[in-house]
Amino acid sequence: MQIRSEALILSVRAHGEHGAIVRALTRQHGVQPGYVRGGRSRRIKPILQPANQVQGDWRARTDDQLPQLAVELIHSRAPLFGEALPAAALDWVTSLTAAALPEGQAFPALYDALDGVIGAIEAAPAARGWAVALVRYELLVLAELGFGLDLNQCVSTGAVDDLAWVSPKSGGAVSRSAGAGYADRLMPLPDFLREGGAAAWPDILAGLAITGHFIKRDILVDRRADPLAARDRLLDRLKHAVA
After folding, report:
1. pTM of the model
2. How far apart are CA 198 and CA 182, in angstroms?
3. For residue 141, what are the contacts with CB-CB under 8 A and spacing of at least 6?
4. Integer angstrom CA distances of residue 205 from 91, 200, 234, 243
5. DSSP string of 196-215?
6. Please, which residues bridge with residue 103 across strands?
7. What is the band of 211 on the pLDDT scale with cuts at 50, 70, 90?
8. What's the confidence (pLDDT) of residue 152?
9. Residues facing 154 on adjacent strands
10. Among 116, 115, 141, which residue's Cα sits nearest to residue 53?
């Protein structure tokens, strides 16, 4: 087994006295784990920062063996981890991706989207510049894993106009007329999720509430739920920043 590919570092776990087990996302080969010899050394440890773009070389004698991984840095995002909001956002998107995606299955759309979200955070550290991209990434993760939301027509009537809510049970949109009297059981649907474009903070937070509900319910369950703490930290910082 041999793979050589550009990749985005997702997670790093110490292994033994000097090594590290790394999970990284490639475009054509999906999430790939590997053992980095000397991964905790002063020379290599900075390369293994989550969100960094690297050139990875995975080698193993058999498909069942954890590959040895050699990495070369292409682009570092380490400076962003010195700022609270960008650091929280990068921690969340890499943790979500590492926990949600099965190993060895290609998700090229998710690779491109994750690269785009990380790039947006890097280009505009102020949260307003990347928060919409973050919501859209979460929606794409749900869709790529088979839990996509139907926000194009009312789940009850089939209407495509005046969609105002999302059903927390079905994940489908609900029109204003169909949801009359049930608003307390539904989630507000912000326009930007359907129409694109920029969004005000109340709509961004409403979008995050929708994606968070379904990520918690359908993806990050049981042993995969640990990354939710990273999302909670991000939401706390976002709400504090816009208060």
Report:
1. 0.94
2. 28
3. 96, 97, 100, 110, 215, 219
4. 18, 9, 12, 12
5. -S---HHHHHHHHHHHHHHI
6. 31
7. very high
8. 94
9. 173
10. 115
Cα separation, 32 vs 3, in Å, equals 9
Give tens-digit pLDDT for 223-242: 788 999 999 999 999 988 88
The C-alpha atoms of residue 228 and residue 100 are separated, in whole angstroms, by 11
Give the number of other Cβ atoms within 10 Å of residue 146's Cβ: 8
Q: Token digits for 128? A: 């307003």
All residues at 6 or more sequence positions from 46 whose CB lies less than 8 Å from its CB, including other chains: 73, 76, 78
The residue type found at 213 is H
60 pLDDT band, cuts 50/70/90, is very high
**Parallel/antiparallel/unpaired status of strands 53-59 and 30-36:** unpaired
Q: Would you say 118 and 90 are in contact if contact means Cβ atoms under 8 Å apart?
A: yes
User: What are 95-139's pLDDT values in tens digits?
Assistant: 999 999 999 999 999 999 999 999 999 998 789 889 999 999 999
Q: How many residues does the chain have?
A: 243
